[in-house]
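User: Sequence recovery, please. Input:
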């Protein structure tokens, strides 16, 4: 029997789609990648999460902003408060992506230490922002 016309076409299309390799990446979920980068690499919570009296980060106020409880010995520009990041409330996505990619605001201004100047690539910066957006606020 010859397969002709649309039946044959459909069959060929089906075989073609079925045989295509499934695209895979190491970390397909940007929120999961952002969590890994924020929690294990950038350790944002060290400064942006308040601590319990025991010194442990307070999981119930994760990334909800905290006082910076250490200071440099010498006088220098210094921020004493690390703002809330959870849910990205009041923060502009593209502004935070820019900050994480360049270490400065889009106006070219560096935040005060101890905020580190990160140099993430765009994909990683966007993943961190996706993770921050996913956090309860
Ligand atoms: C060592 C402490 C520390 C760490 C670690 C840290 N930050 Fe910060 N961050 C700060 C401080 C302090 C400020 C406030 C700076 C200022 O007021 O000039 C700040 C400010 C920011 C701001 C600006 C918020 C606003 O209201 O404009 C963003 C966004 C931010 N941090 C994101 C992050 C992310 C994301 C990470 C992890 C990848 C991180 N920070 C890690 C201390 C820290």
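Assistant: Recovered sequence (137 residues):
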């Amino acid at each position: 029997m010859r397969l002709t016309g649309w039946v044959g076409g459909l069959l060929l299309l089906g075989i073609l789609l079925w045989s295509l390799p499934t695209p895979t990446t190491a970390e397909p979920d940007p929120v999961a990648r952002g969590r890994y980068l924020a929690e294990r690499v950038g350790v944002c919570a060290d400064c942006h999460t308040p601590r319990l009296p025991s010194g442990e980060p307070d999981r119930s106020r994760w990334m909800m902003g905290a006082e910076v409880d250490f200071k440099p010995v010498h006088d220098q520009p210094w921020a004493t408060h690390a703002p809330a990041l959870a849910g990205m409330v009041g923060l502009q996505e593209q502004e935070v992506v820019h900050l994480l990619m360049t270490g400065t605001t889009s106006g070219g201004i560096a935040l005060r230490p101890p905020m580190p100047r990160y140099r993430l690539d765009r994909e990683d910066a966007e993943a961190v922002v996706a993770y921050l957006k996913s956090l309860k606020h």
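Residues 27-69+79-91+122-134 form one domain.
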